[in-house]
Specification:
single chain; about 625 residues; alpha+beta; Immunoglobulin-like; eight-stranded antiparallel beta barrel; five-stranded mixed beta sheet; 24 strands; flat
Length: about 625
């Protein structure tokens, strides 16, 4: 079968060279891909009394039918083709909202023939709603749901053929909750403590003058952190006061509800991104040198990228809208005048939330002013990268291009699946200057980049397994449902100081950040390059998704097929491991230039699987 050859050849792709020794692989192939296609065209009856352990219930819990799984000692994994019945995706604008807030429900399914809608169900305290959402021509759907009752709600969407469903949870809270921004404060404190820790490691390895300057810049970050924490606390206090007011029967206006919902979304987004970055930057340095401590310091700055100018400006805008809302406090004054008899302190109590929101607005404006052009931690980053790194470390900076193509053929030699991608990346190598002498110098570094272009084609009816089992009995109609996003340029090359490298990996599916070791032989004028395990690599969303429709007894049946894309580190290492000797040249001014390139071709036009891989690298000392 096709995937037998697939596995055997990908064993060779996964074979890496580290310290000039061949790495051993373990491979386990499971050839079940054809079963999924066949099940669509010839549905099998199941014994309802005794269901198999791996019975598909929905896409969230189904057992994936895998083609092959190959792992090396470095943890590289050959990506696996998978199939399932039906297709549907679900996304929510927020997973936490206040009572009265609105959740935007959107997603996609396959729109074909009579498959024109999806079923939406919302269940929770006092709620059990079911409705049908029409699919637009592009297969997407959207709806809005207003949260009227506190509690946890389950939102479920099911495809037209009933074969696939997705679920998501939404937490609805009362406005008067007391610790609304507690997690924002927590993650901000965690990020700052990590930044201080990395700064202290650096301080032990630099001069007293440089130490004083670094401490000054860390103090500036500390002041911004205090302003951010004050913003969170003041918002929390304003929300508590507003909640206490509403308990007494003063309802919010619709515009106030809307702005509070937007503010909630902004806070949730900030803390979730910061939490993810905080988790990724907590790792050990590659070694105990000043250069690696500086890299760790730079990474620690990434968490504060969540306090962008856009984020702060949005906070100011929303808080401004809240403070000028007619229901806060002008509506209160009107109500008081109508009531005529109002306790002496009641009017002041009603106006208190407005004052607290105004104070929060002032905090947000102060944070925008403090951030300036450099951003939240930009001064620390620039000082570490532009001055300290150049003062204490020798560095090489450059670019790299890498291309990978894989072709699958049937027994007749006809291509049934083919894809390729091209990546562009920045290359950074570094070493302590105190180690700069004759002989061999050990370097550390990173290759950081992203996919700039994908190509993809498929004709699954030409797959041998399909042809052998179907024997012309039916025809599948293939519809592309999803393709991974590509950025047409290397984002890292436009960010010379490296700020946000971790943040980019969090937000961009096709990014990668691969640590490397290198040995610079000054006598031979060569650098030997070794790739380590990726810090960040393609996310699970780097894949192509197709829906295949077959008509059985007049009923359209849908199979979803996920076509995976092999990760950057796996394919990059396959070519670099066999072409890892880079040449070093020196010009009349003693400036050094590194050049490296290589090709690797596995298989041929007559094999089931063929791989074509190449790379070019160029860097200069700084």
């Amino acid at each position: 079968m096709a995937f037998t050859s697939y596995t055997q050849i990908l064993k060779r792709v996964s074979t890496d060279i580290k310290n000039e020794a061949e790495w051993k692989l373990r491979a386990k192939a499971r050839q079940k891909t054809a079963e999924a296609i066949d099940s669509v065209l010839s549905p099998k009856k199941t014994d309802k009394k005794k269901k198999p352990d791996n019975e598909i219930k929905d896409q969230a819990t189904q057992t994936t039918r895998q083609s092959a799984s190959v792992k090396s000692t470095e943890g590289d994994k050959v990506e696996e083709m998978s199939m399932s019945d039906g297709y549907i995706e679900l996304y929510l604008s927020a997973t936490e909202v206040f009572k009265g807030g609105t959740i935007i429900i959107h997603g996609s399914s396959l729109q074909y023939g009579n498959l024109k809608s999806v079923q939406l169900t919302i269940t929770g305290p006092g709620t059990n709603e079911t409705s049908n959402l029409a699919l637009y021509e592009n297969g997407t759907f959207t709806s809005a749901w207003k949260a009227e009752t506190p509690g946890e709600f389950i939102i479920t969407v099911k495809s037209s053929d009933g074969k696939a469903k997705r679920t998501a949870k939404v937490a609805v809270s009362e406005m008067e909750l007391t610790d609304w921004t507690e997690q924002n404060e927590e993650e901000t404190k965690k990020a700052y403590e990590h930044l201080k820790q990395q700064a202290e490691e650096v301080e032990e390895n630099i001069s007293s003058k440089d130490k004083t300057e670094l401490q000054k810049k860390i103090k500036d970050v500390s002041e911004k952190v205090e302003t951010a924490q004050k913003l969170f606390k003041d918002i929390n206090a304003a929300m508590k006061a507003l909640g206490d007011l509403w308990k007494k029967g003063t309802p919010p206006s619709s515009t106030l509800e809307s702005n509070l919902s937007k503010l909630n979304d902004l806070m949730v987004d900030q803390r979730m991104k910061m939490a993810e970055i905080n988790e990724k930057v907590h790792h050990e340095p590659y070694d105990n040198t000043i250069c690696e401590y500086l890299v760790m310091l730079n990474e620690a700055c990434a968490a504060f990228s969540t306090f962008s100018n856009i984020w702060c400006t949005s906070a100011v805008t929303i808080l401004k809208n809240i403070t000028i809302d007619k229901g806060l406090p002008k509506g209160v004054e009107v109500a008081n005048n109508k009531a005529k008899v109002v306790p002496g302190d009641y009017d002041a109590q009603l106006k208190q939330p407005a004052k607290l929101f105004a104070l929060a607005k002032f905090d947000a404006e102060s944070l925008v002013s403090r951030m300036g052009v450099a951003g939240f931690a930009g001064d620390v980053l620039q000082f570490a990268s532009d001055y300290l790194m150049k003062s204490y470390c020798g560095t090489f900076k450059g670019t790299m291009k890498h291309e990978y193509e894989i072709i699958y053929r049937n027994a007749s030699g006809k291509t049934w699946w083919q894809y390729s991608y091209r990546t562009e990346a920045s290359v950074n190598l570094r070493y302590p200057k105190k180690n700069d002498g004759q002989g061999t110098i050990k370097l550390k570094g990173n290759i950081e980049g992203n996919v700039v272009k994908y190509t993809f084609s498929q004709d699954i009816e030409q797959m041998d397994d399909y042809k052998n089992q179907m024997q012309g009995r039916a025809k599948l109609t293939g519809i592309k449902l999803y393709e991974p996003p590509a950025i047409p340029f290397a984002v890292s090359q436009y960010d010379e100081v490296g700020f946000g490298a971790v943040a980019r990996g969090v937000t961009t599916p096709s990014c990668f950040n691969i640590p490397v070791d290198a040995e610079y032989d000054k006598d031979a004028n060569t650098i030997k390059l070794f790739l380590n395990e990726a810090l960040i690599d393609f996310s699970p969303m780097v894949k192509f998704i197709y829906g295949y429709v077959a008509i059985a007894a007049g009923i359209p049946l849908v199979t979803r097929v996920d076509y995976p894309v092999n990760k950057a580190r796996l394919t990059m290492n396959a070519v670099i491991s066999q072409n890892n000797i880079l040449t070093v040249t020196k010009d009349a001014k003693n400036n050094l230039t590194i050049k490296g390139s290589g090709d690797r071709h596995i298989g041929s036009e007559t094999t089931d699987i063929e791989h074509k891989i190449n790379y070019t690298l160029s860097a200069q000392n700084n």
